[in-house]
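Budget justification aside, the reviewers requested a transparent look at the raw inputs and outputs of the sequence design task funded under Objective 1. We therefore reproduce one unedited record. The lines immediately below are the structure tokens for a 193-residue chain.
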């Protein structure tokens, strides 16, 4: 497990843009000059995960998700790369399931949206006009409330899981360092003969 995490970290380190490259970009430069938004620390990682899940699930519009997550990380001092990465959990493959779950949650909270109409529109491959007509009916409040509830719950779970995962990772690294130190101290001295 740790070998896989090490390989992922090495890959990300090689492929992520460097701080200097981002600082010279006209749009990203103001954010890049705040290094706490790019560091992986015990506080910024859970915040970035939570912000990314919150915005990624609630917004459901790809460009808005990334920009919204980056902007929300600024006052919350969350990790921007992780927030952006978390927005990709809502993608074309998962969006229909998120919408269906949101409508069901909204219906459980007292709103009313017809799920069978959603399935019919989806199966027919309806156009934007039909979807907007359905959304402007009673489906919009149910879906928006459901998206809000799901995104807040997902953000809280993501925050807790990443906090515990970060603590585990640090303990694991310390234990490995202590084992290496113990092995070094226990090894017999070599004479040079």
């Amino acid at each position: 497990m740790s070998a896989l995490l090490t390989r992922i970290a090495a890959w990300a380190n090689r492929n992520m843009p460097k701080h200097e490259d981002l600082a010279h970009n006209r749009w990203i430069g103001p954010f890049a000059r705040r290094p706490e938004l790019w560091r992986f620390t015990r506080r910024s990682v859970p915040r970035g995960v939570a912000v990314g899940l919150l915005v990624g699930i609630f917004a459901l519009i790809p460009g808005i998700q990334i920009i919204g997550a980056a902007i929300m990380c600024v006052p919350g001092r969350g990790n921007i790369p992780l927030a952006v990465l978390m927005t990709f959990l809502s993608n074309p493959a998962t969006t229909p399931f998120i919408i269906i779950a949101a409508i069901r949650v909204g219906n459980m909270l007292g709103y009313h949206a017809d799920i069978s109409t959603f399935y019919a529109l989806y199966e027919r491959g309806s156009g934007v006009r039909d979807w907007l007509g359905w959304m402007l009916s009673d489906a919009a409040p149910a879906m928006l409330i459901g998206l809000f509830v799901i995104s807040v719950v997902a953000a809280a779970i993501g925050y807790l899981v990443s906090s515990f995962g970060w603590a585990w990772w640090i303990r694991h690294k310390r234990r490995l360092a202590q084992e290496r130190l113990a092995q070094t101290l226990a090894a017999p001295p070599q004479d040079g003969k």
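Residues 1 and 7 are 10 Å apart (CA to CA). The chain has a mean pLDDT of 83. Computational costs for records of this kind are itemized in the attached budget.
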